[in-house]
Design brief:
This protein has about 240 residues and is an alpha/beta fold. The protein is built from nine helices and nine strands. Helices cover about 30% and strands about 15% of the residues.
Amino acid sequence: MKMNQIEQLQNIISNSNNIVFFGGAGVSTESGIPDFRSVDGLYNQHYQYPPEVILSHTFYVKHTAEFFKFYRDKLIFTNVEPNKAHYKLAELEQAGKLKAVITQNIDGLHQMAGSKAILELHGSVKRNYCKRCNAFYDEEFILKSSGIPTCSCGGEIKPDVVLYEEGLDGDTIQQAKSFISNADVLIVAGTSLVVYPAAGLIDYYRGNKLILINRDSTLADSKANLLIKDSVGDVLGKIFI
């Protein structure tokens, strides 16, 4: 990361009141939550089934108890805190500069940091609902349960998380498209941009201030007006509001 890149980013942010942030797993790795595709990520750990199979709708239906074992072990993190990126985004929103956070993450760290305008494309581990009566249960209930978590009504409780083979929420997608298409500045950070349809959202951006912050190369690098290859927290932590 070069200082002149930070200066460029600072200048863009200072001169805009219509910023939208689109983030992925790399936003939360500095909080201790592993991503999926890095060397130490979930896809490179060994289980009886690959994580992408376990996290599919079909597996959830056919092997529900095993799904929840993996879910409790690998997707719920109780002792994590927001990092510099989460807090800076909340500050930008409070300052009237940031209009929305669009996230692929399911960890709820943006809310913990104080952000309000959040679109969770893939849902959240913080929300779980009975499939029979729609009663709400928090993540602590899921963690303390064993086997398949069950509602007091006898119904099965399902996490409000979008699994493979399941469609994203249509209203959330439409809101994300609207925010991105109307944005002056679009900051895309901590995402490999390989998971669709979420990755295709940046194609709705019509401006000329596309900022891409990611440690590794992405398929959208050539589209960026400002490309910064570094950790999201380190970059945003240097921004003044």
